[in-house]
Amino acid sequence: MDIRAQVAMVFHLDKCIGCHTCSIACKNIWTDRKGAEYMWWNNVETKPGTGYPTKWENQDIYKGGWVKDGNSISLKGTGKFKGLKNIFHNPHMPVLDDYYEPWTYKYQDLFTAPEGDDQPTARPVSLVTGEHVDVKSGPNWDDDMGGSKDYARQDVNFKDLTKAEQEAMFQLERMTFHYLPRICNHCLNPACVASCPSGALYKRGEDGVVLINQERCRAWRMCVTACPYKKSYYNWNTGKSEKCVLCYPRLESGQAPACFHSCVGRIRYLGVLLYDADKIQAVASCNEDELVDRQLDIYVNPFDPEVIYNAKKNGIADSTITAAQKSPVYKFVKEWKLALPLHPEFRTLPNLFYVPALLPGMASVADGVYNTTSKSLWGGIESNRLPMKYLASLFSAGNVNKVSDVLKRLMAVRLHRRGVTVGDLKKEEISEAMNEVSMNADTADAIFRLTTLATFDERFVIPPAHREESIEMLENTADFKGSTGFGFKERPARGL
Q1: At what angle do helices 305-313 and 318-325 cross, to 10 degrees?
Q2: Which end of the chain is more exposed for a tag (fewer CB within 10 A), N or C?
């Protein structure tokens, strides 16, 4: 049993309002500079839609992630031999147009234009070339164009739906959408790390954050291809690859990442999960219909004495174990079974989990009476306006039952809380929904609290950084040459 610690995340999609405040917070801190204009380490997509970059989920195009190869796995589009063949020309790497060509406006023309009969305009110019450009798309273009044939109807997750089922989704009375915020998943089995010929990508041992060593990066860009979520980017100005760092300087000082801290809908949760690294290879290479259950089985009970013993044996601090025991992510993922990974079929074992969006409330009026019974108000899981096959394609590798179980749990909480606050539902109906998912009132109330009333410290349980360990590592580094690697010219004083 090889117990390690992983900082993991949950995004509650029922609460996301698509305001993009998270994206702007990240942009202002990390990618507001030359060469990174087109990068959005955090972006919010409208689903159904093609996302950013366009059709990133279609690995027939981009060849990202892993594929099952007998009892093992191999990288789909990169690797020792595939990468060598494509090292100078990679046909599976997204180009700038798949993201969008960043632009600004030539505002000076508004002031310097000669006098005339027409109103001068500020023409768009490319931030890459400086030339005039015709704006064709942007990072959240699907917000306004989500219902068009170019976006929503091109969603890769429609692959398992019949033509009739797809068209039914675009009937006015059934039309629906939800937002999908995305950042780097800081996976347990990251394809980007495995693909890098320079060994520049690595996974931090203390918290599992995946980073790129900018000094070792040689811009082969295999990580861009290998990441199936397309969260590794190439900076055309510095000639280096970059990605989300989960705001690790903030984590080390006990602060939540910028996108988490700024989230208006409070949809984001962050905490520690303990996992058994010995299981990773077997889980990543298992059959597709087992992927979700097997991945969730990797994460172990932080209250188990054997787990605690092996965690301490591996050098995990008591404070980190305590943080894992208080983790909101553990509650959503393991205890309540409400959160699922995004596209587990990519086999990277992502550590960002999503609570799927429940169907919107719908009521009916009959004989002048507004009907508020649950069957009319919510219609039941079986009549979900967003097909189960679509949600299963997103969150459970096509396993409809996994998504259905989650939605039934969410519905049970909704029925229970309406019974408590409004009291217009029959007790038998509430009991039936609760019994179907083996949930009691205390659990439903706990889910409701963490979903709606949680404080900052309940949503973000961040383990304290142990500075003494980092100093010890620096002192034991063989190639230490007077610099700590963190910008210091000499070793930090022990007493600070």
Answers
A1: 140
A2: C
